[in-house]
Automatic annotation (TrEMBL):
It comes from the Bacteria. GO terms for molecular function: oxidoreductase activity. It comes from Actinomadura barringtoniae. This is EthD family reductase. InterPro entries: Dimeric_a/b-barrel (IPR011008), EthD_dom (IPR009799). SUPFAM superfamilies: Dimeric alpha+beta barrel.
Length: 103
């Protein structure tokens, strides 16, 4: 499994961010080719002090190649271009292979 993690610093207009993100951006994301699942939250907390991020998004793909293909696709490029419509505080995007732990 390969994960895409997007961290959003505080935007200039939090209400616009939330409304646009849920109504416009997430419906675009949901149609990305190869997307297995996604999660997001506006309830980001820090162990101590103010949280460094306003929102977080996590997506799952079968592997790095599936994520790369999704991002290169015309639809993936539309999703990336849409970020400027709400993320006025910037964005941090990382991806990584997820390893399962044992309990």
């Amino acid at each position: 499994m390969h994960k895409l993690l997007v961290l959003y610093p505080e935007p200039t207009d939090p209400d616009h961010f939330r409304d646009y993100y849920v109504s416009n951006h997430l419906p675009l994301v949901a149609k990305m080719p190869g997307l297995l699942a996604y999660r997001y939250s506006f309830e980001v907390a820090a162990t101590q002090g103010k949280p460094p991020y306003f929102a977080v998004f996590e997506a799952e793909f079968a592997d790095a190649a599936a994520l790369a293909a999704a991002r290169r696709s015309p639809h993936g490029q539309r999703v990336a271009a849409d970020v400027a419509n709400y993320a006025t505080g910037g964005v941090v995007v990382i991806d990584y292979p997820a390893q399962n732990g044992t309990i």
